[in-house]
Amino acid sequence: MDAAAVFAPWSPEFVADPYPAYAELRAAGRAHHYAPSDQWLIPHHADVAALLRDRRLGRTYLHRFGHEEFGRQAPPPEHEPFHVLNDNGMLDLEAPVHTRIRRLVSKAFTPRTVEGLRGYVEELADRLVAGLVADGGGDLAARVAEPLPVAVIAQMLGIPEGDRHLLRPWSADICGMYELKPSKETAARAVRAGVEFSAYLRELIADRREKPGDDLISGLIAAHDEDGGARLGEQEMISTCVLLLNAGHEATVNATVNGWHALFRHPGQLAALRADPALVPSAVEELLRYDTPLQLFERWVLDDIEVGGVTIPRGSEVALLFGSANHDPAVFDRPAELDLARRDNPHISFSAGIHYCIGAPLARMELAASMRALLRRAPRLSLAAEPGRGSHFVIRGLRELLVAV
Description:
With 405 residues, the protein is α+β, with helices and mostly antiparallel strands. The protein has one domain: CATH 1.10.630.10. Helices cover 48% and strands 10% of the residues. The strands form 4 sheets. The protein has a 5-stranded mixed sheet with strand order 1-2-8-5-3, with helices on both faces. β10 and β11 (398-400) form a beta hairpin.
């Protein structure tokens, strides 16, 4: 089939509801070349899950090939500051560098560290929701969904409160580069944000080296590999902090607003949740599946692969459709239905393989905390106006979600 006939990531109508198009892609095959972005679309859950774990693919190819050797052009020189920042983060690295950095980050980003934030997360969620209720409602995105994860990851890293307003704009500009075929203006904003964010973190890291605390940045400075004594280099440290800050809230913000928008459109499920708050853990998983905040994840093909009888040659790029995989009827019973009590729910919203989201436990904690606070303090929460959909497809969410209490 001509994938461009159904897959239209720059169309507002498609971004508003891509799921019918995904069904067409799944029915038509397992791999579809998409000419507008020169990528292979992979819509089935089994293939997406397998390719996320397949070491013949990678987030980068530079550990094995030069640009020309791989049949790709080097990024424009003016984009270099963005790529220095982005390409030194563990999300865009492969073994052995990825293995070393993830191991070092894991020493500071431990389950105990995350669990130690529970009281702060729950108290902050309750305070944010209380403010929304006191005002009679407002924009759930701006009042709860956004400030909660931004404050939590900033608190974890030790970003001073007076500086936290800088983080979301920097993050939004950088994440614009993860969309398909970003514009020159988007790239320029990402480069500028990357330069500013890096300069800020360089100063903060220098301060923590002199005066370490109990924050994650101090932990990252202290982390070392017992085998070889390796530590994070300065650029690795900066790139890791930016990655944790960006990934630590972008998906959670969108998961919150997408999730509540879905609940408002399914009053029976919302009523069941209000009647039984014990459903919160499974509701969080189902809402992550039902309207996936990260719709697409890309991989480079480092060695020829075959998907459904189609050979995808080295040098190609695959677009793994998380949103489609999470609605695959081969894996999920009645996938188009929202079922907060769904038990068998192997969604891949947090990815899989070596790049599985290191912050997934924290994201789950935040989503559950805000949901419980809203159920408790705003038991009659309702949609006040049809929400404004954001224009981005890859990191997909709402511009605002106006609610009444």
